[in-house]
Design brief:
This protein is an alpha+beta fold. It has 4 helices and 7 strands. The chain has helices spanning 5-22, 28-38, 82-97, 111-117; strands at 44-49, 52-62, 65-73, 101-106, 121-125, 129-134, 159-161. The chain has a 7-stranded mixed sheet with strand order 5-6-4-3-2-1-7, sandwiched between helices. Helix 1 (5-22) crosses helix 2 (28-38).
């Protein structure tokens, strides 16, 4: 999995570019280096569909809670329910452990709506970042989900791969 770091650094740069540019914070080198500096193979799962790496997510223990970090999906996989499916899987795990899950999302990011639908609320914010938390068992907003919102998607062999 250590060899995946550069692939994931490129994925991060692609996924975050629009939001970072909007905030005046995009830097070609820094966007990749921040991932390299904080990447943990111990706490990261690779998301694959039919053997293709299409994303990743890190859930790391810290400060009495779990932190959701580095949740990136390839652009061609976004908007199809995959993120919701992966997030539901992670929330089932953290709920079973009885721990609060926290995350940091960039201000104005469309990803914030995904987290709010799954029971996350704002804990703190500044001009760049919004810190959100979800206590164990927090209610998610129930909306009718399209068929593709199942994980793995019908007709695919999607997996969250642990190192």
């Amino acid at each position: 999995m250590a060899t995946d770091v550069e692939v994931i650094a490129e994925l991060r740069a692609t996924v975050m570019r629009t939001d970072l540019e909007r905030l005046g914070r995009y830097d070609e080198h820094r966007v990749r280096q921040r991932l390299r500096d904080s990447f943990s193979t111990q706490h990261t799962s690779i998301i694959t569909i039919d053997g293709e790496l299409v994303g990743c997510v890190t859930v790391r223990p810290s400060e009495g809670r779990q932190w959701l970090e580095h949740f990136y999906l390839a652009p061609h996989c976004q908007g199809q329910g995959l993120g919701s499916g992966v997030l539901r899987t992670l929330l089932e795990r953290t709920d079973a452990q009885g721990v609060t899950l926290g995350l940091n999302v960039l201000r104005g990011s469309v990803a914030r709506r995904l987290y709010e639908r799954h029971g996350f609320v704002v804990e703190a914010q500044d001009p760049i970042d919004v810190i959100m938390v979800r206590p164990p068992g927090a209610a998610s907003m129930r909306e009718p989900e399209p068929a593709v919102a199942r994980w793995p998607r019908p007709g695919t062999r999607g997996r969250l791969l642990r190192p």
